[in-house]
Amino acid sequence: MEKRLTVIHNKEMETLDIWFDDPKKEVVCEEVGGGIILKKDKDNKVIGLEVLYYSKDDVPFEFKALSAEAASCV
User: Fold this and answer.
1) Is residue 1 part of a domain?
2) I need a surface site. Which of 14, 23, 24, 49 has the fewest CB within 10 A?
3) Backbone angles phi, psi at 32, to 5 degrees
4) Residues near 48 by Cβ (< 8 Å), separated by ≥ 6?
């Protein structure tokens, strides 16, 4: 099965969702700080992330808030 990257910018809620796998697999989410939420599947594998307080003015955006610990989950 081919995996695709899905990016959803919700202008009204000012969020940016980035999915590495099927969003329907999300079972749990974990806020790791700096407005970053990790989306995880039933095996606790990170399948996406959500950036809070994101607006068009934030581009380009560096994910500095994603900690080394969180990055190791990916």
Assistant:
1) no
2) 24
3) -110, 0
4) 6, 17, 18, 19, 20, 21, 23, 26, 38, 39
Residue 18 lies in a domain: yes
* Domain total in the chain: 1
pLDDT tens, position by position, 1-40: 566 789 888 888 999 999 999 999 999 999 999 999 999 9
Cα separation, 72 vs 74, whole angstroms: 5
* pTM attached to this predicted model: 0.70
CB 47 within 8 A of CB 41: yes
Contact 48, 20 (CB under 8 A): yes
Task: Give residue 14's domain range.
Answer: 6-73
